[in-house]
Amino acid sequence: MNSGTPMDTIMDGTGSISPSDEVLGQILTELREFRKEVNDRNGHEENAGRVGSRVPAIQTGNENVQTNSNHPLPEIPPPLPVRPAYEQTNSVPGEFPGNTNTEETASGACPNLHQDPLDMERATMQSYYTAEMKKLADEIEAKKELWEEARNKNVELNKQLTEQNAKVMKLQKMMVRAGRNDSSPIDGDISAQFVLLKSDILQMVKSHLSYPENKPSPGASPDLGELYLRKVVASALHEEFFSREAMPFGYGDRLLEKNPLRKFEQTLRESPCDDSAIKEWRLATVKVCKLLDQDLDEYSVAISDQIWSKRLHHYHHVRNSFQKRDKLIAARKDLDSLCRKAADIAILFRGSNIEYEWEQDRTSLKSLEVLPKDHEIIGTKGPRPTEESNFEIAYIVFGGVVRGDKSTGLLENGRVRLSKTQVVIREPKP
Fold this sequence. Notes:
Number of strands: 10
Strand order of the largest sheet: 5-8-9
Oligomer: single chain
Structural class: mainly alpha
C-alpha cells in the first residue's frame, strides 16, 4: 500500500464517503481472525482463491462499499504459503523446518508469517549445525581433559621408572661389591663341566692304568683298585690347577712358577694387602687375559708332564714291549686332554665373582663323618654301609662342587652344594 495515499476516504458509485472508526476496526478485527485461522489450519487451504474469497464486503449503513480506481482500499497481506506435510509431522524436535518446538515458538514469540520458507529452513539448519558444533566442541574439551590426565600419569610413571632404575643401579653396585656380576658362570654349566671331567678320568683309568692286585679285605669293593686310581688322577688335577698354590691366569701360565703374574699375586698375599683387594685385582687381570685369547695347550702339556712323571707312570699297564710305545702315546694324549679341561675350569673359577670350590682334598674336610646330604658312598674297604655300621671316609674318589652364598657369592657366608662328593668308606681308626 502506498504510504502517500490516505486511508480516510472510501469511494462508492456516486462519490467519496468518510469511513467511520467502527468500519476500520471491523476490518482490522477480521484481518486478525483471518491470520489466526490461517495459522490454526496450518496451510491446509487448497488455493489462494478460496482464502481471497473470504474477505467480506465493507458496508456503511444501507450501502455496499466498492472500490474506486481513484480511491483504492488498503492492501490485504498475501496468504501464507502452505507447508508440506513432512514439515507438519516432524517427530524430531529442532532438526527440520516446521517443527513447533523450535526456539522461536518455544520462547512464546509469534512467528513471522511473511518469512520465506528457504529463510526458515536456512535458520533451522543453522541452529542445528550450531548445536552440533557445540556438541563437538564439548567432546574436544573432554578429550583434552583425558589427554591431560594421561599426560600427568605418564609423567608420574616416568618419574617412578627413573627411581626404579636408580635403585637397580644401586643394587648392581652392591652386588659387584659383594662379589657378583652378570659375567659369572652359570651353576648348571659348572656342574656339567665337572660331570664331563669325571667321565674322562674314569675312561683314562680304564684305558691306560691298572693297580697292582692285592688280596682284598673281607667285604671290600671288588673295584677298589680302580676307585683308588680315579682318586689319584683327580687329586693330581686338583693340586696342579685348583689348589691355593696353583694360580693360573690364562696368560703366561706355561712359565709355571716363573709367571710374573703368579709372582705378583704371591707378593700380594704375603703383604698386608686386604683379601678383597687381591680378589678384585685377580678378577680384572683374568678378564683382561681372556681378551688375549692365548692358547693353553703349552700350559696343559707342561702340567701333564709333571703329573705323569710324579704320579701315574708306574701305574701304566702294558702287556708287551711291542705295544708299549703306542699305549704310552695314547695315555699321554688323554692326560693332556684332561689337563686342558681342568685348566679351563680353573681359570673360570678364578675369574668368577662367585666363589667355587672343588672338594677333592680330604684334608679340607672338617670331619671324616659321612653326611648323606653331602657324600655319596661308591666303595668300601670293609664295612658295609648300613645304618648299624660304624664307618668313616677313607678317601675321596671325586669331590663335589660347592659355591658361595646365593646373596653374596662368598663361601664364608654360606656354601651351596651343586654336586655330592663320591667317597670310599672304611672302619674308623682307633
